[in-house]
Write a structure and sequence with these properties.
CATH superfamily of the largest domain: Alpha/Beta hydrolase fold, catalytic domain
Number of helices: 10
Distance between the termini: 16 Å
Strand content: 5-15%
CATH topology of the largest domain: Rossmann fold
Number of domains: 2
CATH architecture of the largest domain: 3-Layer(aba) Sandwich
CATH class of the largest domain: Alpha Beta
Shape: globular
Order of helices and strands: HEEEHEHEHEHHHHHEEH
Largest sheet: 8 strands, mixed
Strand order of the largest sheet: 1-2-4-3-5-6-7-8
Amino acid sequence: MAKPHYCSPHWLPGGHAQTIWPLLIKGPLPSYRRERWTTPDDDFIDLDWIAGKAGAPCVALFHGLEGSSRSHYARRLMHAVERRGWHGVVVHFRGCSGEANRLPRAYHSGDSAEINWILRRLQAHGHPALFVAGVSLGGNALLKWLAEQGRQASRIIDAAAAVSAPLDLAAANVALSSGFNLIYARHFLRTLIPAARAKDRRFPGRIDLRRALQARTLSEFDDAVTAPLHGFLGVDDYYAKSSAGPLLATIETPTLLLHAANDPFLPAAALPHREQLPAAVTLEIHRHGGHVGFVHGGFPGRIDWLPQRLLAHFATHIPDSACVR
């Protein structure tokens, strides 16, 4: 099992390099099996599965903004799950699986209601243990669900982990709105803006398309598109109601909260302190690692420390009744 200590490579210094480099060494796709679920409001989501051994636990992953089962962290985690003989599933948020969803709404950082429906359906599959990881946006939404559910969450899942979650959405978007960090915003906007244009063609008048097309920051886009599509009064209302940080004290399910202090997406000052967290939450802040990076080893580096760390956390919470081969 991986040890908690993370050591960044000397040849890859700084949070930006440690964030961007994994995109270049993400490796091959796992052999996924895709399944489509119809949502309660007659939309759909797609799930990509890895088959494990009978009686093995299942690991579900909620991806980050504009992520998918093709993201570097999803590939590496699902490969690690497969090698262990466990079941794995990458849950795509609406519109993130390569096909536009049917409704005006899409997905957002605080969509805990969607996560609740998904996890309850996954629980019904009857795996002896269900573990859940959330990365970045998916991590924030997962933490919000855990906090809102309180003790009830432990009746649905056995343990959780959130990696590089933007716990304070307002602070995260300030960080992504200037300097070199704008490169990340522009990366996301390259897919978000065309998707908004397509939404406007199908559902005219639901968003402020002119402002969406002019958006240069994620907060400008969220104010023009994300907030109105999902019932928020504006970007400030969206960030205030969706940030998981203020809710963490009510989490009762074993949860690993994993961050890097040099994550360019969230200032270190916005990270919680141990004394602010309940006993169920394990806080792990590493000096280096970037945003969902955690590259290690000699050049060109490896990105398998993070999945091994997550699986080590989950393995300590396998129920005694589970039969794990």
